[in-house]
Amino acid sequence: MKELFTPLQALAYWIGYQHEIYPFYHIPELAITSELSRLLSLSLSNSYVIKVEYDYKKICKNAPKSKRVDIYLEVRDNNNINNVAIEVKRYKPKQIIKDIDKMRYLKSTNLSKYMIITSEMKFPSDFVKTSNGKRSLDEKYNGCKVKRVLKASHSFSSKNCNYVILLEII
């Protein structure tokens, strides 16, 4: 979904800005979700309605009751465009796998599922190509595809960067 690329790049810069202001604190997922929904509302067309902390049951009837998706983009006029479920996660591999499994409950023909993974000043080796240009997702991420990796850094050669990864859950 190309419409997500610009807000995600802005999110990477926002994470860097937050890190400059509060260098000893990690940004909570709720703050990242809130900023992402704000950025999406500024950049998406009026074709979408943005819903935050949206119940799985409203998306898919056979989903567990207590589950919620962080951001749900609902299409106003269905012009062959899918609704979009987005889960926001900080880079913690065990938690990411748990949420990927959780999102697999959402089964609908007109639904695209994405996870947005943020990493503050840490190289997310599970998702980003290494220096030799190779990236292969581990078996634990089976059924997922890295759609985009965005980065914000102090300089071109800096290893301490902020990453935002768009992961599609198939």
Walk me through this protein's architecture.
- This protein is of the alpha+beta class and 170 residues long.
- It has one domain.
- It has four helices and six strands; from the N terminus they run ααβαββαβββ.
- It has a six-stranded mixed sheet, sandwiched between helices.
- Helix 1 crosses helix 2.
- The model has no long low-confidence stretch (mean pLDDT 83).
Helix/strand-derived class?
alpha+beta
Uncertain stretches of 5 or more adjacent residues: none
Quote the beta fraction.
Answer: 25-35%
How are the strands ordered across the major sheet? 1-2-3-4-6-5
First-residue to last-residue Cα separation? 13 Å
User: What's the gyration radius in Å?
Assistant: 16 Å
Number of structural domains: 1
User: Oligomeric status of the shown chains?
Assistant: single chain
Instruction: Please state the overall shape, judged from the principal axes of the Cα atoms.
Output: globular
By DSSP (H or I, 4+ residues per run), the number of helices equals: 4
- The tally of beta strands, per DSSP, is 6
Q: Please estimate the helix content.
A: 25-40%
Order of helices and strands: HHEHEEHEEE
Please state the average pLDDT score.
83
